[in-house]
Amino acid sequence: MAAPTDDPVTALNAVLSEVIDVVQDLKQAHRKVPETHALHAALDDLSRDLRTWAQRLIEQDEQLGVSPLASISSVAGRKPPNLWPGVATDDEVRQLVGEHLDRLEHHVIAARAAQADEGSRVALADIERGLVVHREQLRRL
Fold it and tell me: Which domain holds residue 61?
């Protein structure tokens, strides 16, 4: 995990970068879980929220007058690892996704502390609340 930064834009983009990483790994996780499992639906919900959060962070960057992709790699510029070369259990998927959500939450908390912009603070607080909901949902499955 990258060291926290006091620069608001860098901190905001660290969250966006982590969201992109989670989206990529979530795609692999989603393919490993049968559609009939409750975890599959939970991953669908998380995927929708991640896309919403990414868009919201991009909009915050634009409001701050910066291009997020000037400082981070786009999805196309990233090569995700093969997380499971074979079959993965729901528990393995749940554990990996939970670890991603924990890491993302750490980035969100650090970024929120660095923000002077109210819009960015609100966006990050909303993401943090969403992460709590998704982590709790994973625990219940």
Answer: 8-66+87-140
Asked if 120 and 60 touch (Cβ cutoff 8 Å), the reply is: yes
Is 76 within the bounds of a domain?
no
pLDDT at 19: 95
The verdict on residue 91 lying in a domain is yes
In a domain, 2, yes or no: no
Residue 5 pLDDT: 60
The CATH number of whichever domain residue 123 belongs to comes to: 1.20.1260.10
Mean pLDDT by 10 residues, the chain (141 residues): 68 93 91 95 97 95 84 72 84 95 96 94 98 96 89
